[in-house]
Amino acid sequence: MKSDLDIGDFIIENRASLQEWGDLIAAAIGDKHGDSFKVPATPRVKDPDSARKKQLKKQYANPVVDMTDLVGVRFVVLTSDELGPILETIETSDCWNHKQTRDPNAEARENPATFGYQSHHYELRPTNGAQWCCEVQVRTLLQHTMAELSHDAIYKSPIPVPSQAERLVARSIALMETTDELMCMAMDTIRTAQAPFEAMRKEALVQASSVGGAGADLLDDLFEAYPESITFEGLAEFRDFIRSRSYILERIASRKGRGVFAFPASTLLVYWLAFKHPRSTSRHWPYPGSVRDLEMIYSDLGIGR
């Protein structure tokens, strides 16, 4: 490929193939991590005129190979502790050859007193065939906000940027790092607090598998009504309670489709709560329209309210 090739014409002629390459990358990463994306990961083929301008400014021996952003896609997550799994997918996939061109963690180690642009950058190329490149950026939502600001106001500015403005941006990035650290700590605390509730949800679904394995829709209401009962110790008690009383599943199956019994996984938890704390379960019952169902559960257990 000659250096005098018009890269804009090349993009126009190969737009569909470039878009397909970007879409493949976005889909491969999105299938695994899409739930954590805070901004749509939409691949973008480079504007032909923008590519021509870039070609004028740089000496490319082969612009099709050397221009690394003919297509690009960005993955944005909430906090920095969500970056690792995406980076691992990029670096271990056999769908492409990768090269990391920016690593903010390494840059911070080399220049610990400097606060600048932060984003993981990769160049991804097909393992065979075409040699064009997709530039992938992976960053947090805060990093994305700062990158957009600095890109438009500083990097793309046609006039000199006042040093005071650069200093203010650096201070903002320093504050951003602190904010991200606090957000990560907050999310970790939340996940720790939620862990027994999620474990109970999974266990209830497993125990309800013989009667359809569903019906977890009421669990959030029950968790809110009886939070003190949902612990890892309680999880083991719940499991043993259900396994030792097979008749409970039979009763649920015979009444399935009626009231709370239409939600087997949730109903199993009600049986355990009613057995463990009969008075408080009745007192804090969140479904006044299904008091009769609760009475049937107490009757099945042979206990009074």
UniProtKB/TrEMBL annotation:
What superkingdom does the record give? Bacteria
Q: Which PANTHER family match?
A: GTP PYROPHOSPHATASE-RELATED, RELA_SPOT DOMAIN-CONTAINING PROTEIN
Checking SMART domains in the record gives: RelA_SpoT
Q: Which CDD domains match?
A: NT_Rel-Spo_like
Mention any Pfam family matching this sequence.
RelA_SpoT
Protein's recorded name: RelA/SpoT domain-containing protein
> Which InterPro entries does this entry report, sorted A to Z?
NT_sf (IPR043519), RelA_SpoT (IPR007685)
Query: Which parts pass through the membrane?
Result: none
The family database entries (Gene3D superfamilies) matched by this protein are listed as: Beta Polymerase, domain 2 (3.30.460.10)
Extract one GO BP annotation from the record: guanosine tetraphosphate metabolic process
| Location of the RelA/SpoT domain | 43-161
- Organism name: Stenotrophomonas maltophilia
